[in-house]
Amino acid sequence: MKLIKNFFIPAFLLCITSAFAQKGKEGSIIITTANTIVNEYAVLTANASTGDFSVTVDNSVMNTNNRFTGPLTSGDLVMMIQMQGATITNTNDSTWGTINKYNNCGTYEFFEVSSVPNATTINLNCSIQHNYTASGKVQLVRVPRYNSLTINSPGILTADAWDGKKGGALIVEVLTGTTINTGGSMNVTGKGFRGGVAHNAGAFGVTAFASAASGAEKGEGIAGYETDYTAFGGQYERGAPANGGGGGNGHNSGGGGGANAGSLSSWTGNGNPDLSTPAWASGWNLEYAGFASSTSSGGGRGGYTYLINNQDPLTVGPGNGSWGGDSRRNVGGKGGRPLDYSTGKLFFAGGGGSGEENDGVGTGGGNAGGLIYVLGYDVISGQGDIIANGASVGNTTGGGYDGCGGGGGGGTIILNAVGTISGITANANGGNGGNQISTQAEGPGGGGGGGYIAISNGSITRFATGGANGVTNYSGLTTFPSNGATMGGSGMPTETINGIPVSTLPINTSPDVAVCTGASTNLLATAAGGTYSWNPSAGLSSTTISNPVATPQHSTTYTVVVTNAGCTGSAVTTVTVNPYPTPAISGNNSICFQANTTLTATGGGTYLWSNGETTASVTVSPNSSISYSVTVTKDGCSGSTFDSVTVNPTPQTLAGTDQHIYQGQSASLSGSGIGNYSWTPSTALSCTNCPNPTAAPQQTTTYYLTITNASGCKEMDSVKVIVDANCGEVFVPNAFSPNGDTYNDVFYARNPCVKEMSFNVYDRWGNKVFNSEDPQHGWDGTFNGKKMDPGVFVYYLSVKLYDGQEVTKKGNVSLIR
User: Fold this and answer.
1) How far is it, in rounded angstroms, from Cα 350 to Cα 407?
2) What is the pLDDT of residues 416-457, one digit of tens each?
3) How far apart are CA 335 and CA 259, in angstroms?
4) What is the pLDDT of residue 311?
């Protein structure tokens, strides 16, 4: 739940009642004349505090210049802003002017007027949200409420210059479009805080940072001006009072530039040395090594004091007595300090410090840029300009024998619109320091620091650059014309305005909430009494109570407006409707026994599986078919799904027992199992997809049998075929006894790898009694079916072996009975 205290796109909320319709009450206006002023101003004369419904001012009519059709009245819009009131350090050293407290300085808000009962009182529709201190220069700006605003060439919309109490602010409210065409502009250059005023002093050798009498005057800033600085040590000398530029020290040094926005941590008061001519680095570094490349936010520093003798400024540094006069000392006014915009406050930029003089021809500091604030309920467009530059300081005159003033700080531009902001160019640049035109050398002025530009949306061209330092045309310093004066630092041109303080009825609300589709939640808004109105009504149990039940069908931002005693406040709360996630599981859900599979869930932010895993993907290896479920949670809403994993059996696979053969022989493999067969390697196999292939490898080989069943599951077994390469000797016995005892009953030629054979046996008379070509067929001692008598027989053997050997043998064998 977000309490609207500011202008948030798409709704700008002021303290509103029935007078809401008075937006646009001044009608549409086209500006075609230069220097047109549309605001009126009043000064707060009594402190205003949080909760007050009225303010006391010097003139409640707020129409002194007849810029409106009548006096201030109900439904008119005013802006209240405190311009000064900050406190600063008063130690007379380099810390002088440091901001100790902003106090109420920079605080502002907008009000609609309820009534104007007398000449000094303005009643407000809603209570004041901040505290304001009248002594801190609080002004009320009457804001015209246009229906549309167009500025055509040569029209210029501007503001009264700040006079120490009021002015310097150009504020408009526009209901429909704001258009600034080419040649038209809003311009408050030099309308802000005032520069230090030149006055004769002329002392030599001064080093102080603050004085009530000697030195040049400091520029105006958020801590005050002129005699306001008495409480801090005085209005003169080089110390920078908050964002005001320091005055030059005697004798005749330059004033420092004023400041507005920039990096708070990078300020040194010494500005930014001009290196547009690289050789000048040598002169800058005579202050200290590396100074030429140093940078600083805020205003630029004033130039060196008076000299009379010519020396080389690139080799002879400031403060060297050989310069004569006041030794060209580095005691110019310090540049003003950047201000802190992080708390939502708004400020005028600081005025430049004066140059120190004794001949009455020095120049004062430049005035700062003022404040421009456009409240738009539609677009801001065109090709024109919005300008809030600091004023530049002119050249010295009348011989120019004095110091020059520092440039004014760049001002503040706020463009806060509902519609798109486009086309225009915004400038809040620092003013240039003064130039010294003379036949002798004194200090030029420092450049003003860049300003502050913030818009609510869109893209436009924006500049907040620091002003240039002044120079001297003295003939003895042509190689280093800046003579110690430095440029101002960059401001903050690319900021965003998120809202403006407004007076509304305070509302306490419940925070934003998220629900799941179809769920309900209780909304709660409480204020100090009053009536309630919720919008939109969709999904609400009631629109007129403080605590309706919300059941929106989609994400909805509800606005509640509470009205009590003529004061209205508004707040918003967002109910985000998150859909229930639609989880899904992908992955292989049919696996083989002892295999694994990875299941991946999608659709959520977090995951919880039925097996306790909490990652999106899980790897599982179940022993039997099983279902896995997952709960997916996203944005607080959960959904579940499941997937079944089928575990298929693997086939029983047997490749048979290992076998032993001799080279050239074959073996019959004996595979078994149900499924498709695959033998590998295929080398020397009769087939690779049959159960019983013949294997005839030339060397020992392990064959692998893989059987794949109908489920695609596989099992593997192996068998080794051992191959002997050497067949060995062929053995023929010299006796045998075919007596039927199964021992040596048959006469064989014995060798396990006989490939071919011719085996013949003869009796003593030369009759062939046996012949065989089969190594497994031997002689059993018979001839023609009759047993031969014992005796000696002759054999002839011719054998070819698988290993290639050819063996021939002849011998006797004894038949024994």
Assistant:
1) 9
2) 998 899 999 999 999 999 999 998 999 999 999 999 999 999
3) 7
4) 96
* Element of type H or E holding 281: helix 280-284
Contacts of 5 (CB under 8 A, 6+ apart): 129, 499, 501, 502, 504
Q: What one-character DSSP code corresponds to residue 436?
A: B
| Tokens coding 347 | 């400020």
Q: Are 445 and 405 in contact (CB under 8 A)?
A: yes
**Contact indicator for 469, 280 with CB cutoff of 8 Å:** no
For 796-816, the pLDDT digits (tens) are 999 998 878 899 999 999 999
Tokens describing residue 17: 């009642």
Q: Token pair 């440091």 is at which residue?
A: 98
Residue 521 in contact with residue 556, Cβ under 8 Å?
Answer: no
Of residues 271, 249, 258, 202, the one with CA closest to residue 225:
258
* DSSP assignment string, 625-647: -EEEEEEEEETTEEEEEEEEEEE
H or E element in which residue 622 lies: none
pLDDT tens-digit map of 353-401: 999 999 999 999 999 999 999 999 899 999 999 999 999 999 998 888 9
- Please state, in angstroms and as integers, the Cα–Cα distance from residue 446 to each residue in 214, 256, 291, 333, 367, following that order: 20, 5, 16, 8, 13
Distance CA 384, CA 180 (A): 5
Lookup: tokens for 589: 């859900």
Which element (helix H / strand E) includes 756?
A: strand 754-762
CA distance 721 to 29: 108
What percentage of the chain's residues is helix, strand, coil (to nearest 5)?
5, 35, 60
Do residues 304 and 443 lie in contact, with contact meaning Cβ atoms separated by under 8 Å?
yes
- Quick one: tokens of 423? 């086309």
- 439 Cβ contact list (under 8 Å, min separation 6): 399, 474, 475
Contact 659, 666 (CB under 8 A): no
End-to-end CA distance of the chain: 123
Place of tokens 């199992």: 673
β-sheet bridge partners, residue 101: 87
Task: For Cα atoms 622, 628, 633, give the angle at the middle one, nearest 5 degrees.
Answer: 140
Distance in angstroms (rounded) separating the CA atoms of residues 193 and 220: 5
Q: Which residues, at least 6 apart from 373, have a Cβ–Cβ distance to it below 8 Å? A: 79, 169, 170, 171, 172, 346, 414, 416
Both tokens of 214, joined, read 């000697």
Opening angle at CA 295, ends 290 and 297, nearest 5:
155
Predicted TM-score (pTM) of the model is 0.66
